């Protein structure tokens, strides 16, 4: 069930990206149309089409503002902070082996750079011989050492 929800969120992201691309394309078309209208305005100043061009310019400006508002909304909705607040997305990200490896790597680097003393290396522990007396004389020496005499 969670995979379906995550896939739905990813589909929304893809759809938002397409909308963002469409908005950018529409904005470019508007800029081109405004530029063409401006050129036409310069050519037709004397025939009274200034009003129609002004109205077209206003309409194009309003359309560009709406497109920019949509772009900003999509950017806010799919910003990294916004996506991290979605539990399904976080679960999907945290279950990714690449992300897990990066998190562990960063954690280990943080531990190593903290100035902690490394106690083991090479995966083996350092062993020392057991202090077991085998004769009465060794037992007396060990007892003296323990009792501080």
State the gist of this model.
This protein has 149 residues and is an all-alpha fold. 74% of the residues lie in helices and 0% in strands.
Notable traits:
rod-shaped, 149 residues, 0% strand, mainly alpha
Task: Give a description of the structure.
By secondary structure, the chain is mainly α. The chain has one domain (2-108). The chain is built from six helices and no strands. It has helices at residues 2-43, 50-77, 80-84, 87-94, 97-112, 136-147. Helix 1 packs antiparallel against helix 2 (50-77). The longest helix is centred in the first third of the chain and has 42 residues, at 2-43. The model has no long low-confidence stretch (mean pLDDT 78).
Compile the SSE list and pairings.
Layout: H1 2-43, H2 50-77, H3 80-84, H4 87-94, H5 97-112, H6 136-147
Helix pairs in contact: 1-2
Helical amount: over 70%
Number of extended strands: 0
Weakly predicted, low-confidence segments = none
Beta-strand portion reads under 5%
* Helical segment count: 6
Average pLDDT, all residues: 78
Order of helices and strands: HHHHHH
Basic shape? rod-shaped
Describe the main β-sheet briefly: none
**Count of structural domains:** 1
Radius of gyration: 36 Å
In whole angstroms, the N-to-C terminal distance is: 73 Å
């Amino acid at each position: 069930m969670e995979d379906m929800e995550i896939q739905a969120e990813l589909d929304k992201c893809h759809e938002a990206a397409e909308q963002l691309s469409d908005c950018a394309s529409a904005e470019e078309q508007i800029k081109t149309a405004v530029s063409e209208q401006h050129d036409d305005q310069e050519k037709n100043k004397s025939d009274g089409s200034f009003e129609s061009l002004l109205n077209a310019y206003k309409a194009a400006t309003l359309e560009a503002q709406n497109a920019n508002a949509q772009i900003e909304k999509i950017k806010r909705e799919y910003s990294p902070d916004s996506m991290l607040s979605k539990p399904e997305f976080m679960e999907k990200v945290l279950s990714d082996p690449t992300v897990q490896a990066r998190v562990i790597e960063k954690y280990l680097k943080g531990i190593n750079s903290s100035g902690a003393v490394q106690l083991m290396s090479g995966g083996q522990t350092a062993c020392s011989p057991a202090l077991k007396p085998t004769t009465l004389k060794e037992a007396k020496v060990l007892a003296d050492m323990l009792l501080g005499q």
